[in-house]
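<goal> How does this chain fold?
<body> The protein record starts here
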Amino acid sequence: MTQQTYGKIEFRTQKQDICPTFVIKNSLLMLNIAIVAGGDSGEYEISVKSGRQVEMNLDKSRFIPYLIVIRKDQWIYSRDGNEFNIDKNDFTLFIDQTRIIFDVVFNAIHGTPGENGKLQGYFDLVGIPYTSCDVTTSALTFNKSFCKNVVSSYGIHTARSVHLFRDQEGIRKTILEKLVLPFFIKPNNGGSSVGMSKVNQQEEIEDALSRAFREDEEILVEEFIEGRELTCGVLRTKGETIAFPVTEIISQKEFFDFEAKYKEGLAREVVPAEIPDHVSDECKNISRFLYERLNCKGVVRFDYIFSNGQFLFLEVNTVPGLTEQSIIPKMTRAYGWTVTELFTRMIEESLVGR
């Protein structure tokens, strides 16, 4: 086995050196973890914050973190005021005559290209395991309309909706023929409620359409359902699919938009939700069921409206936020884990079967 050293850190120079069983059980051999963050969507800044949180909270006795910020054609690692470009041929770094090979990619990119399957396909090609869902699941779940159709086929309730495209004729007429006000207009592919509007009157439709089409070529228009917004995180770890405590989101705004999600004081997350045990159990059961049926990997968050005694599926977040303000870290702590333990389990799970 050929090895080189950089300072006190040892870097492997061959892919064959990766041995998951040895790595997980033996702290003498540390894993190089590429934390990818950023992306090409309106969630760029939030993703970078998530990446930094992962970097700060990884177990440094086992993992060597490298925060790689991706934006369009720039894939950069920064250290001590210097920038180093990723070699896209094999996703390696070359620093001071040392080529750094990554053992695992920790995916913290919300939106494209980290949540829609594009980056997953690339990592499959270069042979690096990653902490999020695979290509197929990521592509399916990123498309809100397609995902709702699949979830509905399992007997899970969803709100009435219509899926439309930019160049489609008579969009406004189609919406009003098929749905009843109020409704939400949002990009069909995206997250963090970027480009999303609640429409209460017909006069608001055009502005809402323009806002959504600035983010995507497709839109989803979904009828408003009065109820409580509940969410549940799920993770497969050590042979068990676990559900974190169900959380209720109470927005101080008309709905849980981008500002409410990330500006302090505009929303309250109640962890665990103040709901009867049987309601919490049902939410967890649905979430575990969907996690397995959709073939999810890593930590995933399912969002619902609970109305008139039943759950209506809204969407699934396959790369949910990991910032201080994000819901998954709050769920994790309520479950009794630190975020460091969560990140360790995600990395370990990505190596299962390798």
